[in-house]
Amino acid sequence: MSSEKKLHPETYAITSGRPKSEAGASLNVGISLNSTFEAGSGLGYGRYGNETWKALEIAISEFEGGETLTFSSGMAAISAVFSILPIGAPLVASNQGYSGVMTLLKSFHESGRLEVRFVDVTDNQEVISALKGAAMLWLESPTNPSLDIADLQTLIAAAKKMNIGVGVDNTFATPLVQKPLALGADIVMHSVTKFLAGHSDVLMGSLSTNDPALYKRLEDARKFNGAIPGPFEAWLALRGIRTFVMRFEKAQSNAKYLVEQMKNDKRISRVRYPGFGAMISFEIVGDAQAAERVCAASSIITHATSLGGVESLWERRRRWEIESHVVPENLIRLSVGCENSGDLWNDIAKSLDAI
Ligand SMILES: *Cc1c(COP(=O)(O)O)cnc(C)c1O
Hints:
By secondary structure, this protein is of the alpha/beta class. The protein has 12 helices and 12 strands.
């Protein structure tokens, strides 16, 4: 393990998940296009694993700690977690967060699949009170798109003291900012689609855990629910991880610069930025239609959903019917990419004229 060797993230981003070093070895893992494997090894069948997934899983494990399983999307990874909870199990979760997860949890709650206790994750007391008798605490921090912060350290410690399982969606912060497993969480989840893969060309998800019994249950969920990643997608995601650290650092420094410009612009009424990362949500002085015009007016930033790629994207989140109604109608979520920060600000400043 590189943790023993004390390598740094920008190093293991590049060295992890390579084929064994020997004369003539390939530098990169191949794209394993196999539905089956000769008997006698650990692999067996294509739905159970292959060497391309494994290489990617080793790389993600270097970042998050624990052992990693990859899935066909972030939602597939989250669904695997919820699928191992008993029918009707009480689950404590944020009352606003990624719209896909919120939609899934609301439908689980309505059907009785889970008893979801929706809480304000910025209020420690409210979360801790809701934990009594719960089976699991599911946290997303910072939240998408409000960029609210949960006090992970306090909440994870409180839940573990009560013997409650904790899962954390670490998609926005990334392991360069916070490592939930090191704080005591049982599971850390990623939409690998976003910052880890980083090029808006692949959908994938991951779960990492330090608990071998839990790993086995989640691995079985992947095997038998069948939401497995494609080998080419796994290869692309691993290729993306090679540059994850430098991409994230560049995007983060761009975001910090843009936040400063935005705070001084009278056409923007509120800027939400947690002080780290590459996501900014801001409210314009104007209504939903004005926000739509701003998003449509840019030439460098693409008007599109999703995030975490080298290319900057923005959108008015409430254009989606499933987005939480606590999110303001005029809120624009900007995923800051790796372009030049001055070019980005010029594009934003020009687009704001469309208000
Ligand atoms: C995108 C996203 C997801 C879902 O991931 P997919 O790869 O789109 O399935 C989950 N959580 C957060 C915070 C996200 O941004």
